[in-house]
Fold:
Amino acid sequence: MADSMAELLRKDMECEGLLECFHGLRELDRDCFSVLAQSDEALTIDEIADQVGRERSTAYRAVQRLLQAGFIQKEQVNYEQGGYHHVYTTAAADEVADELQRLLNDWYAKMGTLIQEFRTKYDREPLEVTE
Structure:
């Protein structure tokens, strides 16, 4: 079961925790992101899988989740003799941070609306207690 908001606010959290918090990404996804962030060059799925110690197909699924969330980018590298392969890098930190900020602002606005709905729905005078 997901942690409550109060529990999340009490937890010690690192900035990489935003991967999980905003997009529901997993520990493996975070590991793959960290491998890419620490690399000085673009990496293939096989290289990522080797560094996180997982099968290629498992690493591929994690990379796909990171791509969908916008945390990494994919580039096609063509061979002169024909054929190609893909390499992956992290997206620009400012772009990712701006998107996280947008998501946070949207969430905050939605929570504000829900809180107001709660006030409206349950607003009434307190009952008098008779002894």
In short: The chain has a mean pLDDT of 87. The first helix runs from residue 5 to 10. The chain has six helices and two strands.
